[in-house]
Amino acid sequence: MLSTELIQKYNVQGPRYTSYPTVPYWSKNPTPQEWIEHVQSVFRQSNAEEGISLYIHLPYCESLCTFCACNKRITINHAVEKPYIEALLKEWNLYLSLMDEKPIIKEIHLGGGTPTFFQPENLHFLLSTILNSSEKHEEAAYGFEAHPKNTSKEHLSTLYDLGFRRLSLGIQDFDPEVQRIINRVQPFEMVEEVVNNARAIGYESINFDLIYGLPKQNLASVEMTIDLINRLVPDRIAFYSYAHVPWIKGGGQRLFTEADLPKDAEKRQLYETGKQMFEAAGYVEIGMDHFAKKEDDLSKAMVNGTLHRNFMGYTTFHTSMMIGLGASSISDMWTAFAQNEKKVEDYIQKVTTGEIPFFRGHILTNEELVVRQLILDIMCQFETEFPDDFFHDWTKKRKAQLMELEEDGLIELKGNRLKVTEKGKAFVRNICMIIDDLLWNDQPQTAIFSKTI
Q: Which class is 1-25+365-453 in CATH?
């Protein structure tokens, strides 16, 4: 059990490291021409061997979940579907025009928002158009996020017929009071029906998204939730820490107050209890906040060293090119990032005029690429090896903080090798922070990150 003192010491604001550099530290924006050059260069080098990954952001939801910090648009007007899909296809065609051969798609992920907000026939039109203009990688993995409340058999069948085999359901918590306060009411029976339908159709992998640290959540509600989840036997589970960032997202997260949230050791106990229950049910902890059955590809990837982490979460492989389509989507060429316009109207306006619709990005320096790989190693394998000259410009204070991590039993240092201990896995974000040159040299003066624990 982690001590209260240790949790309070390290429960500070810090990045989640879905990228490095983290978005607030993007500073060297690519020009449109520079971005095109990065895309073309990476495509030529990686398409035939690796294939590409494709993330498609579908931002619409019919109601607001008050815990959500994603980029979304709340509406019950489904007339928005076709214009948005037309814009997505225009953006895809802009990328196709930069490629000198058909892209080989290895990974597709539909995120949101709520992808199943879109009618099945509209999803079919969008995806079949993309798939008909590309080739399918022999190890392709297609998945989508879904809301149990509006995921029909037709949704499941349509996407299955297009090659989708992975389904991720947003569960969060089954306690009625927690569901009420986060405005996401979905009884167990509703989720069970979607899971049964998906398995009957032939889906090979079902993931549940859970959140610990939600308002009004307690040990009893987490135990009840996980008991129910274990009855459905998902293949993978993401057990995320609730990110309370009302200064970023405004109204939604102010429907409850900080007084409603479990804090520090109480919050961490929710995760530790969940971890024990998952492991007792045959799941393995994967990286940070994820679990999978031992026979699942994600568990195998962790064992064989191919586990990767990107803006879509943990994946079983790495592609050098990840194209993000849609409002707010982020594209990753490994050496450069670009994020699309966040407002739907701005996004549509740009693609309509024939522009790749990014509004900010970052070209990585050689030093940043080194740190990026080190952080990725820690996040995926819980260990890394530093280059010989990595520490040469560190201050005494910074070196002392690294030693403090070891004294607190969170890491083991042997020469240039760092290994995260079992205790240290709870503090992996803090460990990454110590080697984050940009964060260390420019500490934020205002709240921009969620708490690490």
A: mainly alpha
